[in-house]
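Now for today's protein.

===
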Amino acid sequence: MFINPEEILETIEMIEEQALDIRTITLGVSLRSCADPDGKRLCQKIYDRVTSAARKLVPVADGLSAKYGIPIVNKRVAVTAIAEVAEASDLSDYLPVARALDEAAAATGVDFIGGFSALVHKGITPGDERLISSIPRSLAQTKKVCSSVNVATSKAGVNMDAILRMASVVKKTAELTSENDGVGCAKLVIFANIPEDNPFMAGAYHGSGQPDIAVNVGISGPGVVRAVVERYREADLTQLSEIIKKSSFKITRVGELIGREAARLLGAEMGAIDLSLAPTPTPGDSVAGILEAMGLEKTGAPGTTAALALLNDAVKKGGAMATSSTGGLSGAFIPISEDLGMIDAVESGALSLEKLEAMTAVCSVGLDMIIIPGETRVETIAGIIADEMAIAVVNRKCAGVRLIPTPNKSEGELAHFGDLLGFGPVIKVNSFSCSNFVTRGGRIPPPLTSLNN
């Protein structure tokens, strides 16, 4: 696709006044050639492969940022699901692999590396089990490694055995990182219908259907969309949708230009442009702020799900007209700790866990960065995960769950994670038990709509 760099001139105000940025350039790297029966050689091959493929990522991103005057906030790497790469090795624990990934990330200067992952939506192999068992210590003993586990798909249904297993992993990870309010859980996502080309952490991994090396770009711009919504306060909802579509188009054109140039300079394939609106703890850079600019007194009020549906639809439609490479998650993120408007809504009592769950039916990512009391039972965590997986499976959409049971903290207290991960209040969790349900095990069968071959 030909892009005239002069189009970028239209975004100057967006960049300078409305916090527009390229949220991430994520380099997807296949590790399939690294498989080795010797664990030490495996780790060395992984380190060599990542450092070789990503050695120019940070300089290229910084150069493009300087050339066009567009902030590129994060530079990341995503690799083949480690459970698949390491299964043939003699390692009984994959912590050495996590350390190799962490060292490679540090050597290349990237912010995060994703792909300490397993896909277990229909069953768990020995390699999957070893990876899952390794997650708590791996996330506690590394700084940049991110993990994801896919436990459900619209074709296979919901693997309840895997969900209960992952609930225990979440709890253990929080305990091992208790000195930082359970921050290890901020690097762990449980997925349904996981995308193979997602540039956002913690869920990024390089899927088996992807090129050898690919560039995936995550754009952002909640501040831009909020500004135009505020400017047109008298517009009806149909007009508002058109206004958001036009803004999304301009934002996406920026991502398309940066992505294609980065791919060319890195000798990689152009992957996906993720159209997601991803908030940050920066004032004004809030998805909740957009919903409130639409007319809600506070995010969580009646009408919130409808407003989010309008926003998500308009962002996708506008972005799709600006690039032929849409992918990843694409839509609106609604994390708690990374969005000051969401934090305020929870603290004011307007937004509950149940309302957030309803909102995930129309957004792109699911229950994200939800801080819950540290005393929350494993079975309750499993029930929350299962509810979200069911929404994703029935609606044939992607959804993730990133729960943080912060040790020694209760409802209303604040947890702090630092930097982009932000801070947020511990949200109330329903105290009634679901133990007898989640411990039944087995799989919830896929819906009838899965029979669409």
Summary: The CA atoms of residues 331 and 364 lie 5 Å apart. The chain has 15 helices and 13 strands.
